[in-house]
């Protein structure tokens, strides 16, 4: 829209409308001016009789066509079916556990992985909350829908800038993981977000910062792991693998299962989900067979550790686990020093299950 002049009883009026969005780079300083330029609207100046000038800002509707779905989208899912971040354990997590300048409040820390960034208004993500170096909580898929008003963008611009300036006392360098150590930078410096998606990215971060109650000042306690398939998965520690492999094999289950549980949480597992399988980031070896999908239930008086073995025949599973035919002539299993090991079929795939009776004993 060209600049135009018109007269009224109060004096001259000048109107200047902006429709071209600024191309904002993520790692540069983001100020109020950049955010205002990125929105379609008109700035009107009106001379007053007393010599002063009145300034009015009206937000208009962009004349650009709706953005097409990004070709590099990793996981297209129905965001309407996902819970809002405000209904997850992330809601106000930093407000509830504020940083007071001491080491004991270096936690919680939150690692977020973006899984869907097609739309400009709502993005989807998963997260891991770290309550300590060994205790974590997985947050399944949730949506973050940004505020739409100019006032919202302006009011939250400072926190967006400060979030991107976070510094870590201890960090994992350029290796981006889901914790517990944060990476050197709070956001990926090599990221697949195109220039046309940068405004949506800023809106996502602003809303995430607001809804988690994040405040500047603490060592890095909120960061993006990455975007979908580009996110680096944290390697499992040897203790976690040993604990889980021994439990799934029904060979030994230690009273301290914390390392294994922490690793499982990183794969989206939660203690109260029952016998719902999760896919592991790296394979385990169970009785010599490769396993990437497991189900672990440690609720109540019975613990269940189940391995899924697609691509392996029933006979191979029975032989590898040294199972015996039961008295009924149909089932295979055997007693171990910690429980009962048995084979079954689930969804067309052989499974190996260790069932432990924990009544009156530690699991």
Describe this structure in words.
The protein is an alpha+beta fold and 363 residues long. It folds into 3 domains: 4-59, no CATH class; 79-230, no CATH class; 238-357, no CATH class. Helix content is 18%, strand content 29%. The protein has helices spanning 32-37, 93-96, 150-164, 198-212, 238-248, 258-266, 314-320; strands at residues 4-8, 11-18, 41-47, 53-59, 109-116, 122-130, 136-145, 222-227, 278-286, 289-297, 302-308, 324-325, 332-335, 340-346, 349-357. The chain has a 7-stranded antiparallel beta sheet with strand order 9-10-11-15-14-13-12, covered by helices on one side. A 4-stranded antiparallel beta sheet has the order 1-2-3-4, with no helix packed on it. A 4-stranded mixed beta sheet has the order 7-6-5-8. A hairpin with a 5-residue loop joins strand 3 and strand 4. The longest helix has 15 residues, at 150-164. Mean pLDDT is 75; it is low at 1-47 and 50-80.
Structural key phrases:
3 domains, 363 residues, disordered N terminus, alpha+beta, 7 helices, four-stranded antiparallel sheet
